[in-house]
């Protein structure tokens, strides 16, 4: 893609986007100057970096940071690939914040949305005058989000799998959050799994324990009531969303929102 000085001011931008029906051997002793994604669309290839040899088969790819020495070659003819290189002010921040694995094989389910990204990019890029730098920036952002959602490393379950596992519990909490007796053991019993497994799934899907998620949900419901039910007192709202007393509610609200419930109501 033609990169202009204005393009380089974008938070993230595509440098190259392409397909190789017959992938040639590449040896880059000094790596590539941008982030580099390479995935197999047919056949099989061998990728070498950081002392590791990785076989990239169908529905597999690898993400390389800038300047990482590597080489790759065909092991099953023809090896067909799709690649995308990108950079920008937030490229490294985005990759890091999403926790995307680099220099290792990433795989995905053939039915996931990630499996069709390369085909959609081909359709977009057919008319390069319409597929401009901003479209490219949006595309690479969506691609990285899908990589986070559907990518699997070392046979571990994907983020989307963990989220799907806890969706029934999200619904259960939505219906029962005011219940002061709601706890980890009851949630685990409802889900039919151990408390330890439940805690693991919640942390993988939300970054929080089930209890922390419940508290956040109660605070969110309290914020809605503070804004929409002006006639309710803080004590009434505390009891309505599952807190045993107003003082605990106020201290928890301040800890989470850095403001008291009354001050929050006044601001809204």
Number of helices: 10
Structural class, by secondary structure, is alpha+beta
In angstroms, what separates the terminal alpha carbons? 46 Å
**Percentage of residues assigned to helices:** 40-55%
Number of domains: 2
Radius of gyration using CA atoms only: 24 Å
How large a portion of the residues is in β-strands, by DSSP E? Answer: 15-25%
Q: Please report the first level of CATH classification, the CATH class of the largest domain.
A: Mainly Beta
Structure explained in plain terms:
The protein is elongated and about 70 Å long. The chain has helices at 91-97, 117-125, 133-150, 159-176, 184-191, 195-206, 210-228, 234-240, 246-257, 261-267, and strands at 13-20, 26-28, 35-49, 52-56, 60-64, 70-87, 105-107. The chain is an alpha+beta fold. A hairpin with a 2-residue loop joins β3 (35-49) and β4. The longest helix is centred in the C-terminal third of the chain and has 19 residues, at 210-228. The chain contains 10 helices and 7 strands.
Protein topology:
Elements: E1 13-20, E2 26-28, E3 35-49, E4 52-56, E5 60-64, E6 70-87, H1 91-97, E7 105-107, H2 117-125, H3 133-150, H4 159-176, H5 184-191, H6 195-206, H7 210-228, H8 234-240, H9 246-257, H10 261-267
Antiparallel strand pairs: 1-6, 2-6, 3-4, 3-5, 3-6, 5-7
Helix pairs in contact: 4-6, 5-6, 7-10, 8-9
Organism: Paenibacillus oryzisoli
Pfam families: AraC_binding (PF02311), HTH_18 (PF12833)
Domain HTH araC/xylS-type: 167-267
